[in-house]
Amino acid sequence: MVRYVSSPVLTVRSAARAVVYTVLTSDVQQSWTVRTLQQALPQDKGVRLEAVRSVVYLLLADGLVEPVAGQRALTVRLTAAGAEFLGDVLASWSGPDPQHPSAARDRIDTSGVGDGEASAA
Q: Does the global pTM surpass 0.70?
């Protein structure tokens, strides 16, 4: 179950959020700056630094990452609640991407179509 967050966009599936969440949850003890997190992302995904920064600040606002003291640049680490939240979100995204055309096709209600009965209009 995905917990309530003040930034609901954190639960909306996107390619950028998916790879950022995957990297963050790969090592929950790791400390990250925006730049080191972006550099750890798969290069073929083309996630821009600004997208990573936006995700980090949204996670920070909801207490899902916490600042690491004693660092000049903003450095964050995933909290226990953050690890659980991101794991739940990633698990909820494990199905087909709802934005993908084939997923939209799968959501179309075709009951009664092609069953040989004409509708009474």
A: yes
21-40 confidence digits (pLDDT tens): 999 999 999 999 999 999 99
DSSP states along 2-67: PPP-S-GGGGS--HHHHHHHHHHHH-TT-EE-HHHHHHHS-GGG---HHHHHHHHHHHHHTTSEEE
Residue closest to 25 by CA, chosen among 62, 73, 65, 68? 65
State the CATH number of the domain containing residue 20: 1.10.10.10
Tell me the pairing of strands 31-32 and 76-78: antiparallel
